[in-house]
Every structure is written in C-alpha cells, then in structure tokens.
Amino acid sequence: MIMKGFKLSLQYCLFILLFGWIGQGCNIINPHEQVPTYIHVDSFTFVKDSVNSSLSTTHQINSVWAYYNNSPVGVFDLPATFPIPAVGNGKLTLYPGIALDGLNSFLTTYPFYYGDTGAIVAQPGKIINYVPKTGYYKAAKNVQITQGNFTGFLPLTGATALTYDAGVYTITLNQPNDTLSEISSAKTYALAIGADEYLEFDYKNTVPFYVGVQANLVGSGYVEKIYLSGINPSDHWQKFYLSLKDFVAQYKADSYTIYIKAGLDPGQSSGKVYLNRIQILYFD
Fold this sequence. Notes:
Layout: H1 2-29, E1 37-41, E2 45-46, E3 63-68, E4 71-77, E5 80-84, E6 89-99, E7 107-109, E8 116-121, E9 127-129, E10 133-134, E11 140-144, E12 153-155, E13 162-165, E14 168-174, E15 180-185, E16 198-205, E17 209-216, E18 223-231, E19 234-243, H2 245-250, E20 255-263, E21 270-283
Parallel strand pairs: 1-9, 2-10
Antiparallel strand pairs: 1-5, 3-4, 3-6, 6-7, 6-8, 11-21, 12-15, 13-14, 14-21, 15-20, 16-19, 16-21, 17-18, 17-20
C-alpha cells in the first residue's frame, strides 16, 4: 500500500512538473500579442483627371489591396474592416482592385489607377475610418472607340447595328428578325506586345453579350478572332475591364479589331444591351 501511494504521488508530481513545463513553453511560443489597429474602408473616392477630360470617371473598384510600411497586409472585398500591426506612426498604402475580365474570382489591382498613401497613428483595438482617393495615372492614355453620335462599330452582314440615342449606345434585339447582333470596331488599333492595355466600358443589359478581339496581319491574310469574355444580364450600370495583354502576346499582329456579339436566348422575344464610354487604355 505504501509503494502504491508512492507511485501515485510520483505520478502526480510528474504531472505537475509536466504541466508547468508546458505552461512555460506556451508562454515562450505565444508571447503577449500586439493589439492591432483596425482600418475601415467603404469605398475609394475617384478623382477626375484635370488634363485628359476624355478619361472615364466611372469605375467599379470592388477590393482594396492594403500595405503597412510597404509590407502587405492583405486583399479585402469592399466595404472592409481589417487589422494592421501599427506601432506609433506608420504609413498606410491602399491600392484599388477590380474584377479582371469581369470575373470576381480574379481580382487584381488596375494598372491605370494610382494608390493612396497616408500616415496612420496606432490606436490599438480601435477602428479608424479611412477614405482613400484614386484616379488615373497622369501617364495613362486612352483611345475612345465611341464618341458622340459616332458609335465606332459596324454591323456584320445581316446583324443588328449599334445605335446612339441620348448619350447611350444600344443594341436592340427583337423576334423574329433582329435576334442576333455582331459588330466590329470601325477602326483597327495598334497594340504593343507586353504592355498593359485594357478595353473598358460601362454596360447594362437584359441579354448576355460577348467581347472579342481579332488579330490582323497585313498582306498575309492571317486573321484570328476569339471571344474572350461573356457578360451576364445586369439591371444596373456596371464597369467592365478586359485585359488585352495576353491576347496580344499570343497573337502578334499589325493591328487589332474589337468585336461585340449579342443574341436572344431561347424563349426571349426581345432584349437590349446598353453601352457607354468604350475606350482602350494604355501608357504612353
């Protein structure tokens, strides 16, 4: 009985020692954590370009890419509240993010929008409301495809045309004759290999439509047309950003043509696609 009691006491002592060692180990592995400061961002304020008035003032910034003292904090859907490891005075940099090619699963910073940088004083545990500003870089240039009553697009044979009325460009589809529209830009555009170049426009639509690019080689008869992205119906105005960089890198050509195609779905008797501010963005 004495031996049994001794074994229990020894086990108890070993347990206490082991528990104490683990507790000390935890204190070493997980020291007292710094209480973060929280930043809340509803949206970006967009600043109109004072030099190039033809640049669009509409945007669809749906995410923020955050950096604190040049170190990445994370990417967050807007509106967002996120922690930063602020100590004393620091520098907060926020870049506007977009959905690449209309896909919400592919978020990226837009190369033509500048970021916002400001000083932040740490307020551990508190939320700082921050309103970042952005706009086009001064070096950003654009080519307007649509201008005034010039739609900038021609219909393919037998297809419904793009029309202009009261500042909006419209594709109108009706059964039984005008059920398909396929239009191409009236002009071709030279695009640089390896450069950031985007097609951007505003849209609202009751039927799906598709955006494509054609590569043209002068004198060889080589033409490659590919529809790169499809756009689902939207009952409100949205912004679309299509990157042309990968297509141009793969299909090197003398010039490029922009295509838009829309058609009625089975069972639909009519539909419309509204477009505005169709332009190509590039850096000079």
